[in-house]
Amino acid sequence: CGQYFCEDHRLPENHNCPELWRVRTRSPPSVERERISVPRYEVKEPSIMYPFKAMRKEWTSITEIYHLTIGAAVVMAVGLSLMGPGFSWVAYIIQNPLAAFSSALLFMTLFISHELAHKISAKHFGLWAEFRLNVIGISLTTLSIFSPLIKVVSPGTVVVSGVASKEVIGKTALAGPLTNIVLAFLLYSASLHPLCSSTSVASGALLSIWIALLNLIPVGIFDGAKIFWWNKTVWAASFCISLILLMLFLFF
Ligand SMILES: [Zn+2]
Ligand SMILES: [Zn+2]
Hints:
Layout: H1 20-25, H2 28-44, H3 46-49, H4 51-55, H5 62-81, H6 88-95, H7 97-124, E1 128-133, H8 135-146, E2 156-161, H9 166-192, H10 199-215, H11 223-230, H12 232-251
Antiparallel strand pairs: 1-2
Helix pairs in contact: 5-7, 5-8, 6-7, 7-9, 7-10, 9-10, 9-11, 9-12, 10-12, 11-12
Bound molecules: zinc ion (ZN) (2 copies).
One zinc ion binds near residues 176 and 215.
């Protein structure tokens, strides 16, 4: 997978490898190797052979809810840490618990919408898709609670399994950032209205576009890498729209 040189690498599904999509689509030898090893498992333990097919009918699983809950809690903590520099946000929460938690809840909603968009999109294309935390993501997101400037909000990814074309992978990846762009636009429009002109709505728009832009970075485990690989024009368009919106929200 390019990240982990573990024994599990031959069966990336087993460790929810974030690079699984590459194995599935980019390098036929790996897929070939998996196919060869499959009958061996079929004889020994049929339940290992079809872990995903068995779950395909279910929309979610206990494991996914568990991973998503932890992810959401960490993301909410990052949201709370945005209330003030250093550790002054702790004091802010104590003074304005309702305002702080409603902002954090909005922040968490932006993250969950992003992940659900990937999931719904993948399911639409007939793939198995569930959210899983990953070591790098959860570490960077946890560090973001304490880091003063850089805020990474990506504790995991929606792991997709099944036979997919370049286009399907690209579109599934695009669904996440696109959702955040739309939400950012809606929140920003709402913040212009006198009834909703609270700072939390405006900062929600800013955060949403930040999540979109961050995920559009065309490297590594980010959605941007998959979109760039599928269609460079679509990637450039979505990246530019996010960048323009971010500038708009920051300076106007
Ligand atoms: Zn791997
Ligand atoms: Zn994403």
